From TrEMBL:
Organism: Canna indica
SUPFAM superfamilies: PH domain-like, Protein kinase-like (PK-like)
Residue spans crossing the bilayer: 481-499
Annotated ranges, domain Protein kinase: 55-321
KW Membrane (keyword) present: yes
Protein's GO biological process: intracellular signal transduction
Biological classification of the source: Eukaryota, Viridiplantae, Streptophyta, Embryophyta, Tracheophyta
Protein name as annotated: non-specific serine/threonine protein kinase
Amino acid sequence: MMAVGGGCGEEMEKDFDSKLRLQQPSPAPGGGPAVQRTNSIVFRAPQEQFTINDFELGKVYGVGSFSKVVRAKKKDTGNVYAMKIMDKKFIAKENKVSYVKLERIVLDQLDHPGIIKLCFTFQDAYSLYMALECCEGGELFDQITRKGRLTEDEARFYAAEVVDALEYIHGVGLIHRDIKPENLLLTAGGHIKIADFGSVKPTRDSQITVLPNSANEKACTFVGTAAYIPPEVLNSCPATCGNDLWALGCTLYQMLSGSSPFKDASEWLIFQRIIARDLKFPEDFTPEARDLIDRLLDTDPTKRPGARPDGYASLKKHPFFKGIDWNNLRNARAPRLALEKDASDDYDGQDTSWNLTRAGGAPGCQPNIPDGCAGSASSSEQQSHISRLASIDSFDSRWQEYLEPGETIVMISKLKKIQTLTNKKVELILTDKPKLLCVDPAKMTAKASIIWSDNPSDLNVQVANPSHFKICTVCFSSYHLLYFLHIFFLHILIVILLFSA
């Protein structure tokens, strides 16, 4: 990766090496394989000397405040990972280095089939990379969304696997602090793996080796997601394992009903409902499910099953889990996964252009667009074409001056104009606004910017796979839809003409 401004990128990289204290491998006693240490911690997952160009990047799994997770296939081995790409500039600016360091160190030491595995890390001038095992089944949240709600048998299976993993996490002295369906990933076989340990909190008696003073830092820091935050956190009480058990209760409720128990129009209203414990159960909840959720959502964290003196024994013996073989969970048959309706296998083998033929409406109001109304870019050598997503090679830092506050990059590709004597290449950048940017990477100048709507709430971007994305709209009349498509393709034509000059 080329650093912008010559030594600027190298200086940033050295600065992060210093802050992260990631040292080079040192020989193991007896001439064995080298090990890596930071503050006397032996890393099982090594810090490699890879570059992002060693990987073929695909679907964007998720985007956070300073990171995004994408599907990454190692070109030489074919191994597939979930690559977490973290923006160094943002991390340094927001003082998040300690969070990144702690997540890396904690994930490296955890060893449980219900927890996502860290395979290796590397970095460059702009980004930190964590290669995690890839969970091809997606998020539990997606299964709830696609099915509307889960059956009790399905919810029981998933809840049992979460309980099993939480028992391990709490047993080694960690509090996850962000349990929710989006952070519960599914393997291709349908088994749960807990992910995203960026908010993890070690307890004072933690068995995990952590950074000095990390267990003594402010314990009542407000972290997590609004709908799953327990009342004691809202009242500024120190974090306990009971926080995760409350979130488990909220997640079980959502699995069975399709929505979170304290859902409301704003975070403030959600917090008011949580503090008041404004909890209503659907009539079709069984007595066993209702009782377990009611106990997990106890306002006293010490009374929640799993946080009592008998540990997880009372939770695992609850009638809701009747029939669960706790010693054979990972070998049990998992529920059948519901596939994404638009993410069919017919994408495989198609041309690698970004294809806009699947642009449709928002959920529940998708207009029928005849074939050909939203054509795809040509791959002819006589005209411009948009190539397959090749890399998110420098995350957002390199392009920050072209982005608005809070705007993030979703996909990056190359726009190539093949002429008689020369080939002109620029970066075509799709953001979540949604907006298209065309930037000359050699001169770092923006050639064109297309904003598809003055109101961002009208549109949103959904990435279907490495070479296809959708611009989803609110419900439009046929007239408004045709007008929107006309403007959209007019903008595309303008971009092509700009680079034909």
